[in-house]
Fold this protein.
Amino acid sequence: MTAISRNAKFVRENVILHNSFFENSIPLIASENLISPLQREMLNSDFNGRYAEGWPGHRYYQGNEYVDRVELRGIELAKKLFRCNFADLRPISGTVANMAVLFALTSPGETITAPALSDGAHISTARFGAVGFRGLNTVTYPFDSERMTLDIDGTARVLREVRPKVALFGMSLFLFPVPLRELADVFNEVGCTVWYDGAHVLGLIAGGQFQDPLREGAHVISASTHKTFPGPNHGIVLANPKDEEMEKALMRGVFPGVTSNHHLHEMAALCIALDEMSRFGRSYARQIVRNSRALAESLYDRGFGVLAADYGFTASHAVALNVAALGGGSACAELLESANIVVNKNLLPGDKSSQNPSGLRLGTQEVTHLGMKTGDMEEIASFFERLLVKKEDPARVRKDVISFKRGFRKLKYCYGEGYPAYRFERFLR
Ligand code: DSN
C-alpha cells in the first residue's frame, strides 16, 4: 500500500490539532455549531461525490433515485417545521441563499432597503457583497442602538420614501426580533416583498423561541443551517410565496441562478437536522436563550459593558459587549483565544473600523449543544473577568478553561446523545 505523503500527514495532523484545540476550548462564536453523529454519517456518504442538478424528479443526471427520495422528504420536513408552503434545500450556504433570493426577486439597478452593516447586518447586504454583485442600490434603516433593534418610526419612513420592491431584514449581530408586526401596515401600504435573513436565529425560530417571521409579515426566509440551527454548513430558502410566479422565481434563483450542483451529502445531513430539530428543537432553543441571558447578566454583574442592559440584554443566542475601554475588540478577542476562549471581534453601532471595532460578539448555541446550563455561564463570565479585567496570566486561566471543558465534550439534543463531539475518525493508519 502506498505510504501517506508528508503533505497529506501535515494536513491530517493539523485537522486533528484543530479538533483538539476545540475539544479543550470554550466555543462562543455566534455563527458556529457542532453536528450530530447521524449527520456525520450523511456527510461521509457517497452522496458527496454525486450530481443532482434540478428539482427532485426533474434532474439532468441519472442515478438520483435515492437522492430524490431524501430531498423530497427533507422538503416536507422543512415545510412542516417552519409552517410554510415552499422550501428549497439546495443553496450551498447562507450567502448563496441570499444571492438566490436577490436573483429571484430583484433586477440590476433597483433599490432595496436593508439594515446597515455597522448596525450588525450581514456582508451580503453591502455594496461590496451580494447586493452590490447584483447591481443594486441599498438604502439602510435607522437603528436604535440603545435597544439594539431597528428604529420603528425611522424604518417606516424609509420604507414609505423608497417604496422598495424588496425590503430585507435580519442581522449577523441579532439580539432582538425585527419589529415585523409593528411594520406590517407599512409593508401592505408599500406593497413590498418582505425578506428575512434568518441565518443566525433559524434554530430559535424552529424551536419556537424567537419571532415567527412568516407569521409576522415576511414572505421569504433565507438562512444558513449551521448556527443556532445545528445542521451542516449549508443554506436554505423558506417561503410563503405571494403567487406561483414568485415560487418559480425562487426555484430558478437557486438553480440555475446561483448553484449548479447542491452538495448532496450536506443536503442529506440537513434533512436529518430538520428531523432532529422537530424532536429536540424546542428544549434546545429554550436553553440557548436562557444561557445567553445568564451569560449577559453574569458579565454585566462583573462590570462588563453588555449592550442593551436596560432591555434585557438579549432575546437570542447572542450577547454583545463593548470592550473599547479594555483595549478594543481585536485585542480582547486575541487575549481570550490565548486562554482557549473563542469569540470574534464585532462592529458595534457607530464603529468605523472593522479591523479594530469596539465590540465582542458571543453566542451560546454551541456550548448549549454541549450541555451547558445557566450556572456554567457564571463560570465562563468569571474567565472573562480574570483575563480581561484582572489581567491574570492567560496560561493559568487556560489551564482552568481546559479542566472546565472536560465536562462538556458530548453532544446533547440529537439522536445518539452523549456522542463525543470532537471524535476524529481515521480510515487509514
Ligand atoms: N459571517 C457569519 C457570521 O459570523 O455571522 C455569517 O455569515
Observations:
- Residues 343 and 423 are 22 Å apart (CA to CA).
- The two ends are 11 Å apart (CA to CA).
